Amino acid sequence: MKFSIQINEGPYQHQASDSAYQFAKAAIAAGHEIFRVFFYHDGVNNATRFTMPPQDDRNVVNQWAELDIKNADGEPELVVCIAAALRRGMLDESEAKKNGIEGNNIHPAFRISGLGQLIEAGIQSDRLVVFGD
Amino acid sequence: MLHTVNKSSFERNSLQSCLNTIDDTSVILLIEDGVISAAKNANSSMLADLATQGRVYALQGDVDARGISSKVADNIKLVDYAGFVDLVVEHGTAVSWV
Prior knowledge:
The complex is a heterodimer. Chain A has helices at about 15-30, 60-65, 80-85, 95-100, 115-125, and strands at about 1-5, 35-40, 80, 110-115, 125-130. The radius of gyration of chain A is 14 Å and the shape is globular. In chain A, helix 1 packs parallel to helix 2. In chain A, about 30% of the residues lie in helices and about 20% in strands. By secondary structure, chain A is α/β, with parallel strands linked by helices. Chain A has one domain (about 1-130): DsrEFH-like (Hypothetical Protein Ychn, Chain: A, 3-Layer(aba) Sandwich), CATH 3.40.1260. Chain A has five helices and five strands. Chain B is an alpha/beta fold. Chain B has one domain: 3-Layer(aba) Sandwich (Hypothetical Protein Ychn, Chain: A). Chain B is built from four helices and five strands, in the order βαβαβαβαβ. In chain B, strands 4-3-2-1-5 form a five-stranded parallel sheet, with helices on both faces. In chain B, strand 1, helix 1 (about 15-20) and strand 2 (about 25-30) form a beta-alpha-beta unit. Chain B is globular, with a radius of gyration of 12 Å. Chain B starts with a strand and ends with a strand. The chains are: A alpha/beta, B alpha/beta.
């Protein structure tokens, strides 16, 4: 079965991202496909490549990255909402350039895109599961 | 339908809202702080009724993490994440009461 996941909260304040990650891992282990994970609202904070948790703590961002969720064209299907990301200072290379800002912080396993990607995920997937607070 | 509730009924009334609105075939999965409502003393009569019908589940890992494993009300079924996935497959649309 084809699943998509929506995450509305950041990595440390709430359990949403951890729950969603455990769910995604279990779905993959059961032979299901994760079509897309959509990071919305504060959930965009799960995509920063600058996170440096202590060594004995899980690295939420890397955990997601290691799931390596990609489409047939090899593009990441860990999708970060552009409007939510930009207002929180989350930029990829092209958005940084476009806005004249030096540096970018979106992890390469994620990509920035629009809300249409969430709607499409809902249409293309058999199930959409939301994790938030 | 599968309804997931992730808040304790001592914190928010999302479980009660869910209980008030779900249809006769829906099931409830308590996750995160929602599992607090699975404890015997926290259990509402509406939830207990649904549990008697075998329609209430709680996520084992979240139950264990909150130290209420020995206090889970009768008839509430414990599932792991694989069981969570199976519930989503089995019950169609998943509604998250966040």
